[in-house]
Design brief:
This protein has helices at about 1-45, 50-60, 60-70, 70-95, 100-130, 135-155, 165-180, 185-200. The chain is mostly helical. It is elongated, with a radius of gyration of 22 Å. The chain starts with a helix and ends with a helix.
Amino acid sequence: MQVQCQEQTDNVKRKPMAQARKPRADSTRNRQLLIDAAKAGFSEVGLNVSLEEIARRAGVGIGTLYRHFPSREAVVEAVYRREVEQLVDAVPHLLDKLPAGEALHQWMHLFVNYIATKRLIAPSLGAAVGRTSTPHATPAELITRAISTLVKGAVRSGDVRKDIDPSDLLRALVGVSYGNPDAGWEASARRLIDILMDGLRRNSR
């Protein structure tokens, strides 16, 4: 009898815990929807897209947006940080599916995607950075580690030449991405990346 009562008590205790997990899952989903909607809004409308429009695109109320992001700058920074996370998280997936040299090549194209978003939000991102400590430091370190992992793997496999410095390559990627102010910069950057990769491979054997 005591065992049965204890089981009933345990069941009662477990139910609120199970119910409590659902809001957290909803909250995570809503946050991702808002970040996706913000990125799309910035791309299609511009940085002046209203927060109400972002909430509408995400299918949530403006109150939900403010619970996650207390200001426009917080929205912009969340979009930026998610881009960094995607760029960094791509490394193990690419290395798992592709030869090391091709993984590096594909990641370089993903870097252009990252820069495309960063160029789009740069004015507001700069304002947000000015009011905090150094939020760029950690993303910069993460990106440097990511490209270092790829370069070292490609060198070990013999897919690229041995004298490549990951920091030099990263600067080259920034250069081809930021060096062109024209509207067609992205297509140009991708062509230059293919040429750059050909040069990295040329003397690898």
